[in-house]
Design goal:
heterodimer, A: 117 residues, mainly beta, six-stranded mixed β-sheet, elongated, B: seven-stranded mixed β-sheet, four-stranded antiparallel β-sheet, 11 strands
């Protein structure tokens, strides 16, 4: 059974710092890995999606890497801003025996990020 | 990207009543929808997979008679929490898979979530 772990559980940094969020998973047979942002009481906003064949994806100040063999992914946030404060969730999508994916995601417990001015 | 709409976004009900939450794909057809549950400060846990025209597949530990799922059309899945109790209070989120090409795994899109509070 896939298990996804995120470290740290919470992180508080001053504005402007670069930071790294970590995600690890136990089963490397993944279809893709996705990073989400969740604001309090809200739904999920997809940030970056990395296919299993990819090593990294970048969007603006965000960069996500994937090392499938070691079961790890990192989300790098450059020059953090107070508006980045949210919970960041990592989720992996399993691959079926046929190579496709039903679409079930296994989520980590999230990292609560606070960026203070 | 495609849009998934959930309704209601918030609902408060009395213990013992039933509550229905709708998940709609607005501009695409979704053969498969997923229902997740999130407790405060916890992660999302998959409850069930909903397939159009067939019975839902429930994850281990999820009571199918408690959480009724109906996926009657390619754009609508409903989750009914029957005889709700305070411990059912949670944030429920649906996800829809769009099937674009044969052999494709299909992209996933999430609704905004529905917060259920049972008094």
């Amino acid at each position: 059974k896939q298990e996804v772990t995120q470290i740290p559980a919470a992180l508080s940094v001053p504005e402007g710092e670069n930071l790294v969020l970590n995600c690890s998973f136990t089963d490397s047979a993944i279809y893709n890995l996705q990073w989400f942002r969740q604001d309090p009481g809200k739904g999920l906003t997809s940030l970056l999606l990395i296919q299993s064949s990819q090593r990294e994806q970048t969007s603006g100040r965000l960069n996500a890497s994937l090392d499938k063999s070691s079961g790890r992914s990192t989300l790098y946030i450059a020059a953090s801003q107070p508006g980045d404060s949210a919970t960041y969730l990592c989720a992996v999508r399993q691959v079926n025996a046929g190579g496709t994916s039903y679409g079930k995601l296994t989520f980590g417990q999230g990292t609560i990020l606070t960026v203070h001015p | 990207g495609a849009v998934v709409s959930q309704h209601p976004s918030r609902v408060i009900c009395k213990s013992g009543t039933s509550v229905k939450i709708e998940c709609r794909s607005l501009d695409f057809q979704a053969t498969t929808m997923f229902w997740y549950r999130q407790f405060p400060k916890k992660s999302l846990m998959l409850m069930a997979t909903s397939n159009e025209g067939s019975k839902a597949t429930y994850e281990q530990g999820v009571e199918k008679d408690k959480f009724l799922i109906n996926h009657a059309s390619l754009t609508l899945s409903t989750l009914t929490v029957t005889s709700a109790h305070p411990e059912d209070s949670s944030f429920y989120i649906c996800s829809a898979r769009v099937w674009r090409d044969r052999g494709s795994a299909g992209e996933l899109f999430f609704g905004e979530g529905s917060r259920l509070t049972v008094l």
